[in-house]
Design a protein that fits this description.
- It contains 16 helices and 30 strands.
- With 548 residues, it is α+β, with helices and mostly antiparallel strands.
- It has 4 domains: 2-53, Alpha-Beta Complex (Molybdopterin biosynthesis moea protein, domain 2); 58-164, Aldehyde Oxidoreductase, domain 3; 169-318, Molybdenum Cofactor Biosythetic Enzyme, Chain A, CATH 3.40.980.10; 352-547, Spore Coat Polysaccharide Biosynthesis Protein SpsA, Chain A (Alpha-Beta Complex).
- The longest helix has 17 residues, at 182-198.
- The two termini are 40 Å apart.
- The model is unreliable at 329-337 (pLDDT under 50).
């Protein structure tokens, strides 16, 4: 790739190296300069600009990031389209991240132009949470680097997967000594049960026996007979030796102690064993005292892996020391956070709702409701609704007003919430208010679609979704075609109050100019985002074009 200051005659197809803002021009870094762009630059008196020109052997940033990401993805994960050289990978299921740290290092050592970052191996995740990101640093990466990284990411198996939590039948055996407080036992049941349920499993049975090896052994056997796959034993006294009560009980029950102790604090006194049954293997954990606390400890690390069907060996436990000091770590959720959703500060896929505006009266179209006008046998409104349905948008709100019953009938079968705007005659702003209000507490952003844009497709919408990232300042995503801004526009939730304050027969377009620093222009492959149907002539043109 050649990165330099070029004269205008050399710029067509080049990537703009730095943003340019001057009278009549607002070009963002990375823009592919067209012949029209170059004419605008010349008219503005600009003779040279810094740009990047790809050369043979270069792979453009988005293609490079996508290639490596697709090779890296295994089960339980998915990605969104690459944007500005970044492709993010998200969890599809609740579980633990399985990633090879050494292979991640190998990819990052190939070349500085291409990077991959992941969560720590075996970290717990929930659906939509980000687990990895591939980023191309410049505007391109060498082809040899991309090919080598893709091979490393995909072989011998995909680099990144999420092992889902599987429902397990779990029992809890507690032991009692003279003076054992009933409240301690009750607290143990409550804390352990909450842990298990947060992982999608359940406590099948729980009971208390005397702190004596034969009694504990009988309880273990009973748990196995009840079909329990994981047996947890919380002792009234901590395990201090392999010949202590709980390890002896495991052996009496026909099992084996695999490992005692772990380099994790809190959690040092954990014991791992197993018992072979007629059909399977029952896993047995002697719990450290810290398991009675909801705070993160070594027991969590082992339990999470077991519930996700990941083998845990003695060697695995002995390698947990790096990062195993868990005390006094502010980033740990204390107490244990709700495992159904990402913790505060955890990056996840933004929830972007869709608003389809279908309330207008089509005054410039004469007597017909343009949204119901057919194009190639399909009502216009269904083109836009289908684009939203087939994209990554959700939930979807459809705002009705004029001829609401006909609109609802035409869109019957769509997975959407229909909300009526009784003030539709007062102008577009009232429909915006109804739509945004319906999604205000359910979405991180909304994409506002007009019902009269039949050439907008799910590809256009998904590209806007890929660009949207409030954490990186891309809060208002505007599609462009041939350098001109179009619709639909994606808005971050922090602009909802301003949208709700708009009055009259106007949309939120003026807010884009007021928040230029947050605008991300997203160039599209065609001009469908510029085409709306406002007149009979425009309808005839659309019919002719789409039918062809």
């Amino acid at each position: 790739m050649k990165f330099a200051r070029f004269s205008l005659g050399e710029l067509e197809g080049a990537l703009l190296g730095h943003s340019i803002r001057t009278e009549g021009i607002s070009f963002k870094k990375g823009r592919i300069l067209s012949e029209h762009d170059i004419s605008d630059l010349r008219a503005a008196g600009i003779e040279k600009v810094v740009a990047a020109v790809l050369e043979p052997g270069d792979v453009s940033e988005d293609i490079a990031a996508t290639t490596v990401t697709e090779a890296a993805m295994g089960a339980g994960v998915s990605s969104r389209a690459a944007f500005t050289g970044r492709c993010n990978v998200y969890a599809d299921v609740a579980g633990i991240v399985v990633v090879d740290r050494q292979r991640v290092d190998n990819i990052n050592l190939f070349d500085e132009s291409l990077t991959i970052a992941t969560l720590d191996p075996y970290e717990t995740v929930v659906p939509r949470q980000m687990v990895a990101t591939v980023k191309v640093i410049p505007f391109s990466a060498p082809e040899r680097t991309v090919e080598a990284a893709a091979r490393e990411a995909g072989s011998p198996e995909p680099l990144i997967k999420v092992a889902p939590f599987r429902p397990k039948r779990i029992s809890l055996i507690m032991t009692r000594l003279t003076g054992t407080n009933d409240s301690v036992l009750a607290s143990t049941v409550n804390t352990v049960s909450n842990r298990i349920e947060s992982l999608g499993s359940r406590l099948v049975t729980q009971g208390t026996v005397h702190h004596e090896e034969t009694e504990v052994a009988k309880a273990i056997t009973t748990s196995i007979e009840q079909g329990c796959e994981i047996i947890l034993i919380s002792g009234a006294s901590a395990i201090v030796d392999r010949r202590d009560v709980i390890p002896l009980a495991i052996e009496i029950a026909g099992g084996k102690v695999d490992h005692f102790g772990m380099p994790v604090d809190p959690g040092n006194l954990l014991l791992l064993g197993h018992i072979e049954t007629t059909s399977d293997t029952a896993l047995v954990l002697g719990l450290p005292g810290c398991a009675r606390s909801p705070k993160l400890n070594g027991f969590d690390w082992v339990l999470e892996r077991l519930v996700a069907d990941q083998d845990v060996t003695a060697r695995d436990i002995m390698k947990m020391g790096a990062g195993g000091l868990l005390k006094e770590i502010p980033s740990r959720p204390q107490p244990r956070h709700d495992a159904s959703r990402p913790a505060s500060g955890v990056k996840s896929i933004p929830v972007v709702g869709g608003i389809l505006l279908a309330a207008g009266q089509s005054r410039r179209m004469g007597k017909i409701n343009k949204l119901l006008a057919e194009i190639d046998g399909v009502p216009m409104i269904r083109y836009v609704a289908s684009a939203l349905r087939d994209s990554g948008v959700g939930p979807l709100v459809i705002v009705t007003g004029h001829q609401a019953e006909k609109i609802c009938s035409t869109l019957k079968g769509f997975d959407a919430e229909f909300v009526h705007n009784p003030r539709y005659g007062e102008g577009l702003s009232t429909s915006l208010q109804v739509g945004v209000s319906a999604l205000a507490n359910r979405a991180d952003g909304v994409i506002i679609c007009q019902g009269d844009m039949p050439e907008v497709s799910s590809r256009h919408i998904d590209r806007l979704l890929a660009a949207f990232d409030p954490t990186e300042g891309r809060e208002i995503c505007v599609p462009t075609g041939n350098g001109k801004r179009g619709n639909p526009v994606l808005w971050a939730a922090r602009y909802f109050p301003e949208i709700l304050s708009v009055a009259g027969d106007v949309g939120a377009r003026h807010l884009i100019g007021e928040h230029a620093e947050s605008v991300c222009e997203v160039e599209m492959e065609d001009i469908g985002v510029l085409v709306d149907i406002d007149t009979p002539q425009a309808l005839r043109t659309a019919r002719s074009k789409i039918q062809k």
